[in-house]
């Protein structure tokens, strides 16, 4: 049985406890990994797997996703499992039993009709519909490798990713059929067989937006073209068993068999498919579930017992992350279902729709990206049922911690840190720790080891010093599918993953992420953290998003530029009633009050009403913003571009930039 969920009523006071009152992290780890605690769920043992020495969750009862889904769906059979809403008039819900039956029918068809077998790569490219989750579990019931394709990628990228990992079948929705239908029957990568079949959801459950029109159905859906209607596929499977219980595919799966491929966001080039085994991917389940008991014990509270847990209402969780993102798929959806939660998803993120759902349906928990959570935290509406909010994906403003504590009335709030390559969570900072150290991403579970390393000498640095974050543990993926060179660069032979993030660890072992190495601004040879600069801008109450980037400069190499946008409902103290934007000088003054190091003061600021550009994974796209900054610099005459703004020709500064850009951590 999975550990108990979080209950605000049993947690204690709604204000954070000071660090001096909190139990030791090491003591908590020793206690929780005991066989007598939480049914032995968090027991840890050392193993050597494929030459990698690591600590694994030995008490977790599910060796594979297939075993997990079969057991969890029976345990919570009558409870609501999946709810999809496409607006107030279009909402659809399945119980755990109904969800399992639908996934079993689809799995039966995948194996018997479409020839999917153990190890085959099956792609899923959809919005966060019910069919997305049903498809995910169906692939695992077959023993296939579930490939999470970025549903919001451009058509060329979506086709590239499908071919790059050799998907033999893809399950998709109406919005993506045009991009993928042309791949069916075509030769794959390096002469290998390509995409054989495409199964299309003609509409998201609840109908509404995203429907396939009658013309599109006639154009695309055709058995002869091997483009199939999802509903017809399920109906034929149901008819084939004649009303009897559908037989599950017979497959022998082991923890070291491959389970998932989730693509990186591709901010520096083509996305890479991260390949993980059953054990590696399921590791996140233990790492995420570890959060709640650690929060109780941190403030010396007893863990809820089984009887108390049984009397609590079902947790209802809103998924803000896209389900092709590791945080949405693994840390939110899969982990929530371990505890029998109802998982609610929307057609697309809309804060007003989220507020409506939380209020009308009494939602308990939200898992979303930092900018989504900030919108919720600053929404005017009271949300009395909301007891837990967690986020990840980007560094938030420091104020978010206090805002969430107030919004949830002392509930479980916090952030996690990880990557696709770590199968989501590697560290977490929650509850009292999140309030006391709002800029930290917290501590690792006992199966993960974090090291801060000088990227040049490859030696570990002292506590408090900056270096590259290296992560070792049972959740580290095998590597990048069909990318041996990229795998060798990022993954060491012992299974350590080099994150490319700049961070430091304090004396208590809490991790702080300062930047991506490639995003550091190097001004006159000094490394400037974009995250630190951004926190100075976030101190202004009107700012909802901020991103610092480097502006090339002949003298300094690079200078600090910031793009930011205001909250739709905010106005600055100096702004007029007409809703004028805060001025560049006003924002600079705010940042200077917060940032003690003059080298970190922003030199150029552009403020706008429109949200900042993001990549398909929902992260602020620094590559795109750097190009945008160059355009703005030429328009406004920033730095070396003053002459250009005045109409005079200027030479290229790219050689200067490359010549002076040498990072020293």
TrEMBL record:
Residues 646-665 are annotated as: Disordered. This is Acetyl-CoA synthetase-like protein. Residues 79-481 form the AMP-dependent synthetase/ligase domain. GO terms for molecular function: acid-thiol ligase activity. It comes from the Eukaryota. PROSITE patterns: AMP_BINDING (PS00455). InterPro entries: AMP-bd_C, AMP-bd_C_sf, AMP-binding_CS, AMP-dep_synth/lig_dom, ANL_N_sf, ATP-dep_AMP-bd_enzyme. It comes from Pseudomicrostroma glucosiphilum. Residues 533-618 form the AMP-binding enzyme C-terminal domain. CDD domains: AFD_class_I.
